[in-house]
Amino acid sequence: QAQLVESGGGLVQAGGSLRLSCAASGRTFSSYGMGWFRQAPGKEREFVANTRWIGVNMYDADYADSLKGRFTISRANANTIYLQMNSLKPEDTAVYYCAADSNYSGRSPGYQYWGQGTQVTVSS
């Protein structure tokens, strides 16, 4: 059974940084699209970033327009991705979810597999 586990969330002051990790298990995710979404209280889940397999050991990345330049997604190996978040703002406060799919890697939350989420709280 495929499983995604996020870690690295926490409380940080505005302007600070956090790095989230997502560890996938249960199968090899090398050709899977993997990404990050977030959901703030009372709001819909929104796209943050994703990484798409484009060839052997080759991936590209896509970001929500509003987050480009502050957030960076990276892929350590077939089953681990990171989200580096810099210059954090209070409006970045949300639960951050990792997602993966064997056939989809877009901006909509239509992924097969989801983690339980990790809370990120940015204080002003």
Summarize the structure.
With 124 residues, this protein is mostly beta strands. The protein has no helices and eleven strands.
**What is the alpha-carbon Rg in Å?**
14 Å
- Mean of pLDDT: 95
**Helix amount, in percent?**
under 10%
* Backbone structural class: mainly beta
Total helical elements:
0
* Spatial gap, N to C terminus: 40 Å
Order of helices and strands: EEEEEEEEEEE
Low-confidence stretches: none
Number of strand segments:
11
- Portion in strands: over 45%
Largest sheet: 7 strands, mixed
Principal-axis shape equals globular
Descriptive account of the structure:
This protein has 124 residues and is mainly beta. Helices cover 0% and strands 56% of the residues. It contains no helices and eleven strands. Strands 2, 4, 5, 6, 9, 10 and 11 form a seven-stranded mixed sheet that branches. The chain has a four-stranded antiparallel sheet with strand order 1-3-8-7, with no helix packed on it. The model has no long low-confidence stretch (mean pLDDT 95).
Task: Indicate the topology.
Layout: E1 3-7, E2 10-13, E3 18-25, E4 33-39, E5 46-55, E6 58-63, E7 71-77, E8 80-85, E9 94-101, E10 113-114, E11 118-123
Could you list some keywords that capture this structure?
124 residues; mainly beta; 7-stranded mixed sheet; 4-stranded antiparallel sheet; 11 strands; 0% helix; globular
